[in-house]
Write a structure and sequence with these properties.
The chain is built from eight helices and 14 strands. By secondary structure, it is α/β, with parallel strands linked by helices. The protein folds into two domains: about 120 residues, Rossmann fold, CATH 3.40.50; about 110 residues, Hypothetical Protein Tm841, Chain: A,domain 3. The strands form four sheets. The protein has a six-stranded mixed beta sheet, with helices on both faces. A four-stranded parallel beta sheet has the order 4-3-5-6, with helices on both faces. The protein has a two-stranded antiparallel ribbon with strand order 1-2. A hairpin with a 2-residue loop joins strand 1 and strand 2.
Length: about 300
């Protein structure tokens, strides 16, 4: 029977059913509650740096056997041992069915992105297109934080003047890490460059008391829906302080996300043969071959004499 709903629960294509691609995260706090009834659960790979290697190998192999492909979304602030374990497991399994996706996003923004991929995993997207969609969707996220200090912030450019002001008691700083870094000292007229389209906002509160994010910032950005979530464990490491309130705006509607992804031209990876978006396969890491530009043919000249 042909399916006409691209948002069918396990559709790979018309007339063909599949188990959805697994979207994995490295901690339970990165598995946000479902955005809608179609959002698939996240696979939590917790304690990778604390468990024996054979346990990690068995866990990833079981996911491949069950889902076919696995996309692991994780922060650049994870302990180095977690990153090393993931790369070791992928190498030992000799598998091009595991995609390791580690974008330059703060932890809360990364959790939001992982949830969007979990939404899209219920649609008729192939594993390669779904995994490639992560890079596309980062362009529609605005991720930042309100900080009580920028003295140890090294992931966003901070001038000497701001460093000096961070030692003044009571100073707070509004910081945008993505898509364009921005830092301002909090004042009545302080503002950050926000999205130019309608979004929802997720807020995670650390050890900082302020209503600026959910109040002034949300109003200036015309946020259409605001919810709170627990602060990810890696946020303090990423931002250099536990005195923060992290935030991220995003597109919540699955139909909009689906339209964005399917409107982009798809390519076939020349190495592993799966469909991808962009010029780099997220599973086998192969890049599209460079097509040589044909040289302009020179006019034939008769020999002298």
């Amino acid at each position: 029977m042909r399916r006409s709903d691209p948002f069918g629960p396990t559709g790979m294509g018309y007339g063909e059913l599949r188990v959805p691609t697994a979207i994995a995260v490295t901690g339970a706090d990165m598995a946000l509650p479902a955005q809608d009834e179609r959002t698939l659960p996240a696979v939590v790979l917790d304690g990778l740096d604390r468990q024996p290697l054979d346990h990690s190998l068995a866990a990833l192999q079981a996911l491949i056997d069950q889902h076919g492909h696995v996309v692991v979304v994780y922060s650049r602030a994870v302990p180095p041992a977690v990153d090393q374990r993931l790369r070791t497991v992928r190498s030992l399994l000799e598998s091009d069915r595991i995609a390791l996706f580690q974008p330059e996003l703060p932890p809360l923004g990364l959790a939001v992105l992982a949830r969007q991929l979990r939404q899209l995993a219920s649609c008729d997207l192939s594993p390669g297109v779904l995994a490639s969609a992560g890079r596309l969707l980062t362009h529609y996220l605005h991720a930042g934080a309100l900080l009580g200090s920028v003295a140890k912030l090294d992931r966003v450019p901070v001038g000497l003047k701001s460093h000096a002001k961070s030692w003044v008691p009571g100073s707070q700083f509004a910081v945008l890490a993505h898509p364009q870094p921005q830092l301002v000292r909090l004042a009545p007229d302080a503002t950050l460059a926000g999205p130019e389209f309608a979004t929802s906002m997720l807020v995670a509160r650390g050890q900082l008391q302020s209503d600026w994010v959910s109040g002034a910032l949300a109003r200036s950005w015309r946020i259409q829906g605001l919810r709170e979530a627990p602060l990810p464990a890696e946020s303090a490491e990423w931002w250099g302080t536990g005195k923060l309130i992290e935030f991220c705006t995003f597109l919540p509607d699955l139909s909009v996300l689906y339209q964005l992804v399917t409107s982009v031209r798809q390519n076939i990876c020349h190495w592993c043969g799966i469909d991808v978006i962009g010029d780099r396969c997220v599973f086998c890491s192969a890049t599209a071959p460079v097509t040589p530009v044909p040289q302009q043919q020179q006019p034939h000249q008769l020999p002298a004499g």
